[in-house]
Amino acid sequence: MTAQYPLLLDLTGRRVVVVGGGRVGTRRAIAAADAGGRVDVIAPDISPELASDQRIRTFRRAYQPGDVAGAWLVHACTGVPDVDDAVCAEAEAARIWYVRAADAAHSSAAVPAVARVDDVTIAVNAGGDPCRARVLRDAVQLALNTGALPLRRHRAHAGRVALVGGGPGDPELITVRGRRLLAEADVVVTDRLGPRALLAELPSGVEVIDVGKARDHHTRTQSEINELLVSLARQGKFVVRLKGGDPFVLGRGGEELAACMAAGVPCEVVPGVTSAIAVPASAGIPVTQRGVARHFTVLSGHDDVDWRSVVGAGGTLVILMGVSRIDQIAKELVAAGLDESTPAAVVENGTLPHQRVTIATVGTIAPRAQAVGVRPPAVLVVGDVVAWRVTTLGDETVTGAAGLRREDRRIGGRGDETVAPLGDETVAALGDEIAARVSPGRLRVGSPVADDGAGEPASDGRPRGRSRQHAEERG
Ligand SMILES: C[S@@+](CC[C@H](N)C(=O)[O-])C[C@H]1O[C@@H](n2cnc3c(N)ncnc32)[C@H](O)[C@@H]1O
């Protein structure tokens, strides 16, 4: 068979005749109407779907010679060979393209399996095997949807920005939409934290601007980043601002969105998996747990915090950017009334292969963190959920959670100020106090909560005497 010639038709306002009102005729008629065609369906039996579609004219009768006159495209879908023959013969004589649903080999045109992803149309024909074509179409659509195929535009287009939450670091923890927008990007403006492994997969020609990495000890201020996003979009680029975690959780995404809006630059926000929840989860620590903690508070370790109200609020306390001030934070918590024996955990590099968990109490977490050399990025979790993790999961193998999926990684162990290396984790300082907090009848719900922050850039974007470690923690 001669190779067919693929073509995309503009049916807008053009007459399309569908002969046959069954399943196939209904599908073809609706697709033609969706494409703007002026559709007439001729059949003794018309499906309810066709009958109720205001865009489509229906004629409840058998085909009659002359029915296809004036059409641009004809679908013969009766399934009755003699009728389909007559319809197609009339169309051929009138030089009208015709598709014979039951016999692709005797058609002058073929309908491919179609899918649309944004402004991309996928049309697959697979040697006249519709099922094979659909399977292939679905595979291509999935690959496009998940960002596995490059979607970048090469013709001039309007500039825009997407603030994409990249998740805590594991490249599989970005959302499907985030991944797809990355595949469309002309420029990626990235933080130091987040799924940096994905940057290596970007097609050549995609510009990557790292605004999280201190180059010559100079980190861009927030206002410089805002200006950069606006200026790139004004050059007609699609800018993906790839941020760690969720853009709006201690991530200054709101400022970037506001800057784009103020400049009239279209900006989309793609939520992300925040490290505040995902990093503890990856270490097997639920931020809420029935009977243990019903709420949690997320804070920045760099901010000024009213520790008394934080401690008074109870629940789990999750502190980001807290490593460099862990000693001070622990002391503030105790001074604000938190029991020194409250369990605490530091999870470094959560969801990444080198994730490490250090567990102690509020009274011992700072020296313990120092002893094992805790480094950013890390999340500090304070509360009984940490004890729950240790006592409940014990020595059982945990699979499924990101970071805990290796069969050989075991969690647990109690002991007196012991460091129990379990796989690549360090579980430390599990004193009797922690065990007592989760013993039946002795569970105390109500740990800390907080918020603070020195060292974050001031609202005008200028750094406020930030130390190098503070800068690192910002990601
Ligand atoms: C500037 S905040 C950004 C938080 C981000 N918007 C989010 O929702 O996760 C950076 C802090 O997030 C925490 N963090 C981010 N990714 C982490 C990871 N993979 N492991 C541990 N902590 C992480 C650290 O506390 C780090 O200092």
Automatic annotation (TrEMBL):
Keyword tags: Cobalamin biosynthesis, Lyase, Methyltransferase, Multifunctional enzyme, NAD, Oxidoreductase, Porphyrin biosynthesis, S-adenosyl-L-methionine, Transferase
Region named Disordered: 441-475
Pathway annotation from the record: Porphyrin-containing compound metabolism; siroheme biosynthesis; sirohydrochlorin from precorrin-2: step 1/1
Catalytic activity: precorrin-2 + NAD(+) = sirohydrochlorin + NADH + 2 H(+)
UniProt GO molecular function: NAD binding; precorrin-2 dehydrogenase activity; sirohydrochlorin ferrochelatase activity; uroporphyrin-III C-methyltransferase activity
Organism superkingdom: Bacteria
Gene3D superfamilies assigned: Cobalt-precorrin-4 Transmethylase, Domain 1, Methyltransferase, Cobalt-precorrin-4 Transmethylase, Domain 2, NAD(P)-binding Rossmann-like Domain
Entry annotation: catalytic residues: 191 (proton acceptor), 213 (proton donor)
Biased composition (Basic and acidic residues): 459-475
Assigned EC number: 2.1.1.107
Domain called Tetrapyrrole methylase: residue spans: 161-365
Keyword hit for Translocase: no
NCBIfam families: cobA_cysG_Cterm, cysG_Nterm, PRK06136.1
Protein name: Uroporphyrinogen-III C-methyltransferase
